[in-house]
Description:
Blueprint: E1 4-7, H1 13-24, E2 28-33, H2 37-48, E3 54-58, H3 64-78, E4 83-86, H4 101-130, E5 133-138, H5 141-145, H6 151-171, E6 176-181, H7 196-205, H8 214-225, E7 236-237
Amino acid sequence: MKKTILVTGGARGIGKKIVEDFANLGYNVCVNYNKSEKEAFNLKDELANKGLSVFIAKADISKVEEVDAMVKNVILNFGKIDVLVNNAGVCNYDLFTEVTDDEIKKMIYVNILGTINVTRSVLKNSMINNKSGNVINLSSIWGMVGASCEVIYSMTKAGIIGFTKALAKEVAPSNIRVNAIAPGVINTDMISNLSEGDIKALKDEIPLGRIGNLEDVSNLVKFLASDDSSYITGQVISPNGGFVI
């Protein structure tokens, strides 16, 4: 039976790369999206035209009822969920004293509550009953060390690390592994507004001398989802080129 992976925020950026890689590995892939409808349908068509197994599901992950409906629909189509990648996230760059209440709520609702909602639903409806599963949470280096002008974002990503460590202990007896990936500076939309000078300055601060690419994260997801990492749980692994050591 083919394995199934659910990727939140899977229509763009890191999530899209993860979806593409796992589809090519022969997984059933479920692409969760909320606002990126056009990108989700384009990705579905692209993969389906290659004969790959893909399913898209719109859900605001901050809303329990939408998450439960999505998870049950994935299970109805594919039977179970073997791998969950909590990738969806939002950020904000501003002085802490200038961040609005709405921006704070959005980051907490998506980054923290969204991760909780999806993970809980997948565990309850699939992984615990099957005594098998793999949860991979996307944190950030800023969850490890904090970032000026990204205080709330850093807080939410630090919360993901605590969530990962605690949950890994709780579900290990059910043969479910939980790990976190804390990427450094990766070439996504999140840095698209930076100038060439900003990018050069960042590269100068990174010991390996380059910005990370999507493969640097997706390859790590593939490793953590595989049997090659069967004795790894509760860990935070950071592909960051030496930026944070």
